[in-house]
Each structure stands twice: as structure tokens, then as C-alpha cells.
Amino acid sequence: MSHNTFGHLFRVTTWGESHGPALGCVVDGCPPGIRFQLSDIQADLDRRRPGKSRFVTQRQEPDQVKILSGVLEDGDELITTGTPVSMLIENVDQRSKDYGEIARQYRPGHADYTYDLKYGLRDYRGGGRSSARETAARVAAGALARKVVPGMVVRGALVSMGVKDIDRANWDWDFVQSADNPFFTPDPKSVSVFEDYLDGIRKAGSSVGAIVEIVADNVPAGLGAPIYAKLDQEIASGLMSINAVKGVEIGNGFEAARFTGEENADEMRMGNDGPRFLSNKAGGILGGISTGQPVVARFAVKPTSSILNTRQSIDVDGQEVDVRTKGRHDPCVGIRAVPIGEAMVACAIADHYLRHRGQTGRVN
Amino acid sequence: MSHNTFGHLFRVTTWGESHGPALGCVVDGCPPGIRFQLSDIQADLDRRRPGKSRFVTQRQEPDQVKILSGVLEDGDELITTGTPVSMLIENVDQRSKDYGEIARQYRPGHADYTYDLKYGLRDYRGGGRSSARETAARVAAGALARKVVPGMVVRGALVSMGVKDIDRANWDWDFVQSADNPFFTPDPKSVSVFEDYLDGIRKAGSSVGAIVEIVADNVPAGLGAPIYAKLDQEIASGLMSINAVKGVEIGNGFEAARFTGEENADEMRMGNDGPRFLSNKAGGILGGISTGQPVVARFAVKPTSSILNTRQSIDVDGQEVDVRTKGRHDPCVGIRAVPIGEAMVACAIADHYLRHRGQTGRVN
Amino acid sequence: MSHNTFGHLFRVTTWGESHGPALGCVVDGCPPGIRFQLSDIQADLDRRRPGKSRFVTQRQEPDQVKILSGVLEDGDELITTGTPVSMLIENVDQRSKDYGEIARQYRPGHADYTYDLKYGLRDYRGGGRSSARETAARVAAGALARKVVPGMVVRGALVSMGVKDIDRANWDWDFVQSADNPFFTPDPKSVSVFEDYLDGIRKAGSSVGAIVEIVADNVPAGLGAPIYAKLDQEIASGLMSINAVKGVEIGNGFEAARFTGEENADEMRMGNDGPRFLSNKAGGILGGISTGQPVVARFAVKPTSSILNTRQSIDVDGQEVDVRTKGRHDPCVGIRAVPIGEAMVACAIADHYLRHRGQTGRVN
Amino acid sequence: MSHNTFGHLFRVTTWGESHGPALGCVVDGCPPGIRFQLSDIQADLDRRRPGKSRFVTQRQEPDQVKILSGVLEDGDELITTGTPVSMLIENVDQRSKDYGEIARQYRPGHADYTYDLKYGLRDYRGGGRSSARETAARVAAGALARKVVPGMVVRGALVSMGVKDIDRANWDWDFVQSADNPFFTPDPKSVSVFEDYLDGIRKAGSSVGAIVEIVADNVPAGLGAPIYAKLDQEIASGLMSINAVKGVEIGNGFEAARFTGEENADEMRMGNDGPRFLSNKAGGILGGISTGQPVVARFAVKPTSSILNTRQSIDVDGQEVDVRTKGRHDPCVGIRAVPIGEAMVACAIADHYLRHRGQTGRVN
To answer: Are A81 and D16 within 8 A, CB to CB?
Structure first.
């Protein structure tokens, strides 16, 4: 059962609400003997952390992670013991305010209406469980997942913001992590374009969507499983579980629907180090199983539903209301989705790495 | 664990290879007391069945389903007992032929290479477990899933074939099932366009991709769960598990990434029968939970990898080879993906219907 | 979810009713490359098969297993491919008879009453899904599980029948499988005692319970997991899932409750081949993890509920009735429970073997 | 997967070590709208809490539970929201001491040796994850589970301590919770017997085992499932997962193996309120499904492995050593197992209550 858990051998359970005392996760099944530093986890959390630029929510959360179980200390390092790793992040900046309106109004595009329908009640403070605060826990788990697969590197980048696209010819992975880059864009020339565009959106009281691309390098061949545990399926499932995601594609994705068989085939030749593919339209996965090429996925994030501009809705009593969502919000939630997407891909691959080793006894 | 199983309370396990004696599924958790006729299952299988027109594979498989357990007979009707429903479909037309080449060559775009990498051996006869023959079992399970949610109607349609799109202004659900429509297209005017286009593709020894849209009407509000059991996530997971699918989107999907918050919001007003939405860009799901609107999903199917035209590849010994895939193949596998997509969506919703009832005790 | 499935990486789903056309199982997650012969499976089924002596039910079922998927043939051998292994056993001797009484009366000790309460209907023919016919599928799966753990030997024996116990001083594993031994007793001297005792029980229209002991040798150390996946827990769970089982114990079991800490400790010394234990009161498991010693479990089987002697009950209309259960029944179902218990222990250990390899990357 | 998780719809994940900063659990799937007070949880924890009498470990842990998520406050009450309930208990009395010996020696009967074999390292401080400290988290989860099934009452009692048994004729449930009763015994006359016996054991540097009985009243009929989700199976699994448990039985348990079919049958008559059973040898479960009678289970707890008396063992270097386990230990861990056993039974029944409602739409 998977209401708040994902993964099978590398298994992550998250808990916590936007305005509760804390949130966190339990990672069960992490192999023993993995060495890491707390700063490895913190670094990923810092990349997702709010309040770092004017282009993201101004909520100030230090997002300091504490590890409560599952590790032994050895100097600066932590070593996993094979028992559950419980990680906790305190909520600090739950701004004291009147939730009167949000408690009673169904904000368009939010889960307010559906939570009430489903459960008969909801935690309206900051969106409760439906808040993207929950994704901090995923990022913490993902940081651990990265350590599970030797050599694997999982990176993400924002490739479109609203109607603006990057130029792939300028792709620079190093620039993605640059301090001058508030957008995780891989195209240095796109920064000023995105700045102007998003400033306009923000000042207009609006918001905008985005497309994020995740690439996993050094993924061992043979991970995944043929039918209902396809690696691409589980990556897609993980990415679709991120708040506001409306679409996912692997490799060339929807473009493949427009191609002929010849155009779409990734041909093979023998290289010096063994088989090599002449292209990677498949995104590193054939028949649900990794080929050894980079695994490539993209996902579409809808525009932030919380906007200052007025939208029509109803309230809990069925009265028609006009909703304006004040408060602190990301004008483009797709930006901070980059490290979250990386985490979900890392977790999916780590889980399959362990499952593959279990079922087949091999590590390719 | 989910190598060959999906769902939680409505749980489907499939088995079988392309050229084995049979394939089938076990549906565990189907509620007791559901009445249906064997012809209800067979009708869906017939829609997926190969050999019905020149636009699909010429393999002749009657795909007659047998139900081996889990039901009581009452005249023409079958009644589920709550125990596992085992369904079996015999393979009939496994053409006797020399598998020499296919056994040794890695066909581009197929799972040949990755199966060998993963398992160290593979059933090369007709693609073995990676063959789309497996999807017959899903369709049988989906036919039962449809009966689980009272009133639910799940329908699919082909909306693009290669570079050709339907005109949504002509959408006619009745036409989708018409005998004059070999494509599951909802646009009567598209038939001749698709015929000419696909005849050309076929005669050129090539293949082409497609986009399929699935719409589920009368889905109760409140189904799904907030975080890792989002209804859209599990629909996406199910659709991505179908052979050759490279992308999935819910509602307006990737288009949402281009929108502003105002454009993307589905506003609400009070109607005579309660709350109503003024649009359905969300595709019937907010925060992972159904709103009561139609649930809308689309998926992209890559072109059939088996083509007559020559592609470069290698064989099991690492020798470079030129591969031409003779034999019987669909020039556009996206066509027969329509009933398969319906089945996966029906199963995902049925599973959440039972889970919702279990956790909350409600049925909205 | 586990209504009709058990195991995680080595995962068994069974289906079928007593009087349906067939029953079977799907084994998902079996490692690739395992070589076996069909006769390996059949041999275990033959040990469980009814009709072999006057001490078991006279229902004649050949229990010929067919493997429908998941294997390749190589001469006389079958090789697993890593895909689901579907096994099917036809029901042959569903005696045509009037089920009038059994359909309407709740037989004491049977599941008739509870199935009706739960599902609102039931398949009363031969007990439907609650029949011990289902256990044939477990035995088939268990035969495959034995092949998964190199060198493992799982054997069972009947150690008590009703008030009669074997003499452990006479224990002879070879005798258990002897053709002269209709009871799976390890004590040659007990055969005549059991024969006389059970003939008396049978002729009196009664039935009697039994205790069965299972011993697994050559179980690698390190299998199991600390908390909710303890090896002893999962063995106990598997044994308790067998029809009519009312108690399970590991090692010295309930006797441990009578012991002091000194008496109960299995002390250790260094032997020539490494650590050795001076006793095995723990039954080969400490903290839920195998020690490398033999794994020992015992389970109690209640007397067959179907007896000729009259018992008081009610019928589906709430009328009080006197029930006599005619037909073919085992006077001591505990006898045929021996190979079933072996199968459940083999499956539990095989599953943990794969899980251990997955999580830790080791095989001790 | 269930390394540190149990249950399906009512799903409990625990984490934490004996000497880490805290331990806890996440309860996922708890229905929304359940009202309780924090003191309801605390009361059960207090019953399990160490340090309350000279007959249990002197470690002083207040075991104050904090609820970090999944609830709304309404005055003194908490209301579940349907999202994960995260509960945390801080470890306070991790006595600072030299772990030199315990870090290097394999204590007989403990998991030291097997953890090292499995994981290649272990947290030796207080036994790490294998410590019974973990069971506090179960008790917290169980307190919530009790609220899920309306009217259900789950109670436990110690029925044997070492070679001393209670007299069932004196059974008094009220006395079990009496302040004068440090043993959870239901027989007031047994207190002085147990006191003298256990004082002797304790002063001799030894320990002793126990048998605990759990009775669940007002369990709705129809809970459980036929084959691999039998209610008795899942209760047995839960009880076997408790540290030091070596055997489990349901109803008359092992005694059933000695009975004839007539003796063992629970006959039925019609009472004023519907069907009634004339006895309850089955322990309230037939065919894996609850009958509506009290559910009765018993489990055997081995003597505490940590004793002052010397036992032979080896250390991590394979050197032979004599082990004496100093420190604070329960002379009879079976005593504090009573509330733990209650918790596991409550959780198993709550899970099946939700599953039954999900699959069948009924609540009997």
C-alpha cells in the first residue's frame, strides 16, 4: 500500500504538514555500510530551500535536517546500519495569521475541495499535507538514494518557463549550480530572459508553469523489470507524485508519437568498450530496463495555483466567492521542482538497483 | 513488490509469453457479488484482438478468455465470490518459424538487449514476455474493473497518428466503436486520412507513433490519495507500463507548463446539483484526488520498433549486423493501445474506489 | 496487499476452488537461470496428493502440474527466465453430487458461516476457496523455492497424531519418505501405533489433530530482517496460513517460556570451521535473522472438521440443524500437511535469500 | 515490503534505536475523523514503561509521546485528518558507560552475532535496533488502532511465568490493571507466588520466560481473508514479530492437535440475538475470518537473554569468551510484553476492519 510510501527495497515514507511542528521521512531498506556526511543531505535541501531569491516564496525555512536513527558516527562521517533512517526537519516560519478565508474557501487549482470531499475535514493551515513543504522530505531521501548506486549522478535543469524555452545549444551543467543562476537553467543566456519574464508575471499577480528535465548518468544497465515495474514507469510515477506535475515523458517522449520507426530507432555499433548506441531517443530505457545510456525524463509543472488575481470559486457552505490568494508563494513552482525531480529519479533508480541485485544476483 | 502485479485492493497479476501455450491474469480483491457475462470480458478483448484489419498485425489469435476461478454461475451470468478471478487466454497462432536471427540479433528499440543484460538469457520467441501479447491479460482485468465502480464509463480514442491529428470539433464517441472505423478515431473525417497515411507507411516498410486519449466519466469524487497514491500518478504509472509508451499527461498536461495561473485555474460556481467547474484543465483531479469531473489522460506511443527497413545493430556475440524485422507487426501499435489504455485507467480507478471506501468508510 | 499472495521478492499468488476446472499459482520474482525438471515439481505434489492410502481422503486427483510461462526448455530441463512462472493443476475428480445440505448448512469448524458473513455468498462446492485443494498450488511453488537457495534442504515430519507422539530417539529422515510410511513419521516404530489409532478414529466417524515439524538445513546465515520481517515471523505467518493450523512455534517454542535464561541460551565456541553453537534452542534464528544452524519450526493442525458424527449447527435461514458431513475426507489432515509445511518454509527462506542479497549485496 | 512496516490499509512503520536520540512510528492510513486524547496514547505507553517496579528494568524512560502530524486540535481532543500520524518518543536515560565488552562480545540469545553477519556492522549501544525499546512505538500505534474499530476492546494478561501458572478460575480482568499488580496477571492469588518466584530468579542473576494471552472483544464478524491474509495468520505474524517471542497459538492452539473432531467443534444454536456458538475453541476465527466471538491468542516469551550468570560465547575476532551481561534488564520480559501484544492484535484487527470495508463495502 502506498498512500505515503514509495519504493520497494529502498522504501521512503514521508509525513508532516505545512504548519505542523515538523515534517520528515523514514527511509527503510537503505543498505548498510554507506558512508556520507550530514552536509551531503543538507546541500540538496539547501538547493530546494525557499526564500533564496525574489523568484521563489519568501517563507524563511532553514530546513535543517536531523537524523534520528539508522546511522553510526565515525568522525565526520555517518555510516548506515541497514536499519531505518529517520530524518526530521522542523517547521520554523509558520506565519501566525488569520486563516479565516483559506479555511472556508476552495482555492481553484488547489486540493482544498477534494480533501474536504474525501476526508470530511482538512488541515487548511498552509495547505496542510498538500503543501509542497512535504517535498523537503523527498529531497532528504533522495540525497541518500544517490549514495546507493555507485557512480550514479542525477542532475536536473529547468528547460522551459511559461512560453520561454532555453537554447539547448548552450547547455552547461556546471552553470545549473552557479550562484548567479536562480532558475536551475542550463543556458546562461536564458537567465536575463527568465528574470524579466518572471518579474513581469510576479508583478502582475500571476504565476507561470515550467518544464524540468532530469538526467541520470552512470546508471548500470539491467535495472528495471519488464512489465509493471518498468524503470521508466516508476520514474514517471515518482515525478507525477510531485505537486503540480501534469505530464511526464521519457527520452523523446511525446515527440516519439510523431516519428517513424526508422527515425525513432537507436541504432547500435560496437565501440572499444563494448556496445554503444548511436543515439538516445529511448532515454536510456528499453522494455522497462536500463540500457546503460543516460536516463532522461522531463515533466511539466503547472503554474502556481495561489495567485493574487481574483478567480471565481465557492466556499465550504456552497456560497459563491471570489478568491485572491495572498501570502507567500512561488511565482513559478517549477523552479524549486528541479531538486525534487532529481530526488524522485534517484530514489527510483536506487530501488531498482537493489531489486535487480536481489532477483538476479548480478550487478552490471 | 510489483514486478508483474499492479493495484492494491483491486490487484492484477499477469503472466505469459508471446509463444508460450497461454497467457493470463489473476485478479485478486475483486469485490463479491458483481454480476457480469463472459461476453463483457470478451467484447473488450475483441476490440484489442489482432488480425482484424490490414492496419494491424495479421497474427490470428481468437483471444477467447476462460475464467478458471472466483465466480459462481447463475444462468447466463457470472457472480464474483470475492476470491481470485483467474483468467486464461490460449496462444493459438504461434507461427512455426526459424527464430535464428531474432534469437541472436538485438532489434533496435526492442527489449532484446536489455533482457539479456538483466537476466543473462531471454525467451526470444516473438519477444517473449516483452511482447504486447501480455496486454490481452490487462484488457481482461480491465473489463472486470469497469464493473467495480457503479456507473463509471471509460472510453479511449486515437487523437494523433504520426504527424496527422484529428479535428476535435468532430469528436463523436459513438463513431469510435463503429465497424467502419479501424482506428478508434473519434473524428469520422479522419478515417480516410489515416487510411492513406498508414497505407503509405506500411508499404514503405516503416511504422509510425500515435497519441491516445482516455476519458473516464462518472468517476466518484474523492478517489485517490494525497501524496504517493495520487490518482493521476497511478493512472500515469499504469499507462507508462504499456509497451512502447513514452509519455503521459493528465488534463491539459504539458500545455499547463505554458499557462499562467489565471489561464490554468478551473473556476467553480454553484449549479443546480451542487458545485460545478467552469472548465476541466485539471483533467478531473486536484491534489491527486478526483473532483467528480471526467478524468482525462493522454499517452504517447512510439512507432513500432519492428520494421522491414534495415537498421544497424549488434548480435549476442557483439558482431555488427543489419537488422530487418520480418514477420507480422502492427504498422502503428498505437491503434490497439486504445482498449489497453482504457483497461489501465479502469483498473487504477477501481483500485482507488475500494481503497477510498476502506480508509474513509465513504463513497461520494 | 496479501489476500492471495505471499512473499516479496519471491512472490506467490494462488487461485482456484475445490470444484472449479483448475487451480494454480503464479510465482513472480523467481531468479533467472534456475534449472529444474518438471518431475521436481511433480514429486512434491505427489507427496501431498490425496488418495494414496486409506488414511487420507479417497478423492482421486492426479495433480499433474503444467507450467504455462516463465521457462525455456533445454532438453529434459527447464530454465527459469526471470518472468512469472504460471503453474496450473486441473481438478479431475469433482464428484457429481447433490450439494443441497452443504450449500445450506454451516458445518462446525468450517468457513461456511464466516464466508457468508463476509461476502454475502460463497462457493459451497467442496468448500470452494477454503478447501485444502488450494495447498497443491503452494507445494508447486515451494518446489521451485527449494531451487532458489543453493544447498538448502527442507524436510518435514509428523511428530504427533492426536494423543500419540513419536519417540525422537528413533528419528530417521530417510524413513519419512519410505513407501511403507503413510504418515511422514520419522519414527519407524510409530507406524503401527498410528495405523491402529487412526483406523479406530476413522471407523468411529471421527477425526484427529496432529503436530508437524519442519527442519531446514543449510540455510545461509544472515537471512531475515530485524523487526517486521523476522525470518521466524514470516515462517510462522506462512505456516499459520495453512488450513486448520492453530499454533506455530520456532525452536523450543512454548517450552522456552518455562526455561531460565541459562537453560535457554545457545552457547557458542569456535570450531574448526568457525563459530559453532553448542545447542539450537533458538531454532536457527536470533533477532529474526538466521544463524546458520538448522531452522526448526513446528505447527499444530486441528482435527478435520468434516466428520460423520453429528454436531449441532444452524443453516443459512437460521434454522437449527444437526450436521453430519459425508463424503471423502482425511481423518487426519495433519498428515498431508507435511509437504505443505515444507513448501511454506522453503518459500519464506527463498524470499529472504533474495531480499538479503538485494539489501546487503552479500550472500553469507 | 515489510522490513520495518506492517499492515496494509492501517500501516505502521517504526524507526529508532535503543541509544539514539529518539524512536517513533508513522501510522499511515488511519481513517479521518477519529477523535482521541493524547492521554489515550500515553496511558498505553505508561503500561509498557520501564522502571515501574523491581520486577522490570530500572532504566528510567518517561516515554512521553509527541504527535508531529496527521491531527487537528479541537480543545482537549485531537482529530485525525487521514494523513500520516507521526509519533515520536525521546530516549532520555541512555546511561553513559563503556560499551567495550558488549561492542565486541556476542551475547548468547541476542542478535549481536546475526546483525554482524547480516550487515557487517551493528549499533551495539543497548542492542541498537534489536532492543525492546522499539516496542514503545508499536504500543503508540496500537493505541490509535483501538480507536479504529468501534466498540472493540483488546486486553492482555500474563498466564504463566516460568514454571508457575495462574488459576483460570480466578480470572479477573479488572485486577489485571490494578496498581497492586506488577505482573498483568488476571489471578489475584498469583501475585505473591510470582513475586517470590521472580525475586528468587532475579537474585540468582537469572531470568525466566512467560506466556501471555490476548483477548479481543467486540470484533465484528467477517474480518480477515481466506488464504494469505487470514486474521489468525496476521495476528500470529504480529505477535511473532515481538522480540523474544518463540510461539503463538490461536484459540485452543496446540491443544487442538490432541483433540478429535467432535471435541474440537464449536457447535452453533440460534440465540435471541441471532446465531451463537456453544464454545470458542477456534478463538473467534474460522477459515481465517472472524466469527464475532472473542478473538483469543497466546504467545510464548523466552527468558531474557541478558543475565548476570556466565555463559560461553565468542567475540568479534572469533576469540572464546565468557559473557556476563551487567546493566539494567527485565528478569522476565514477558511481563511488559502484555501491552505490546495487545497493540499488535489491535493493529491487525484494525487493518482488517479497513480492508474488509474496502473490498466488500460492508461492516458486519
So the answer is: no
